[in-house]
Design brief:
This protein is of the alpha+beta class. Helix content is 36%, strand content 24%. A five-stranded antiparallel beta sheet has the order 4-1-7-6-5, sandwiched between helices. A two-stranded antiparallel ribbon has the order 2-3. Strand 6 and strand 7 form a beta hairpin.
Length: 193
């Protein structure tokens, strides 16, 4: 099961150093094992957990970018199938750092944003990566990139609609092409040529 989805702006170079990452959208799935005594404190804890994941994803993206010889793409790809070559990866967070149980994070970096799925350790990681690669072009259609940096506007209702269909209640699905084409028609996304 997917515990959370995080969409973040990676931050760009700033004069004193790299700009910090910024969580643009986050969604948690499932319910906590015990009812929270203080809902406000529980929300704050969840925000801190997702921000810790965002910082880890940002550091992995920066490390991969610095080790590769390829410069970042300045424009979004016209063909969503070209996202198959987008950089991504997996990493494991041990119990207590920041979640009570260990989790595995699958991430994908596209332009100045990154997508991350926080999964249970026993989850199918190939399916998690495939799900991210199918989510990314549909969520990019819900984003409005304001420039080559990390300035992004998000339509949260569109992101909610995509996640409700592709990750219902945090369950990853094996999706066929006909389902994805119907989803694209619903959202008004132009099909890839």
């Amino acid at each position: 099961m997917v515990r959370a989805f995080v969409l973040l702006a990676l931050g760009g170079p700033a004069p004193p150093g790299p700009a910090p990452c910024r969580v643009l959208y986050a969604r948690s799935f499932g319910t906590p094992p015990e009812p929270p005594a203080d809902p406000a404190r529980q929300r704050l804890l969840r925000k801190e957990q997702l921000l810790a994941v965002a910082r880890q994803v940002t550091s992995h993206c920066q490390l991969l970018q610095s080790s590769s010889a390829l410069p970042p793409a300045p424009q979004p790809p016209e063909d969503p199938s070209s996202l198959q070559d987008a950089p991504g990866g997996l990493f494991h967070l041990p119990p207590g750092d920041p979640f009570p149980q260990g989790v595995t994070v699958a991430w994908l970096s596209v332009l100045a944003v990154a997508f991350a799925l926080v999964c249970d350790p026993q989850e199918n990681l190939a399916l998690a990566e495939m799900t991210l690669r199918r989510l990314a072009p549909r969520l990019l259609a819900a984003l409005r990139l304001l420039g080559p940096g990390a300035d992004v506007l998000l339509r949260p209702e569109a992101a909610d609609a995509v996640l409700d269909r592709i990750l219902p209640h945090g369950q990853m699905l094996f999706l066929n092409q006909a389902f994805l084409q119907a989803l694209d028609r619903e959202m008004g996304i132009k099909p890839a040529r």
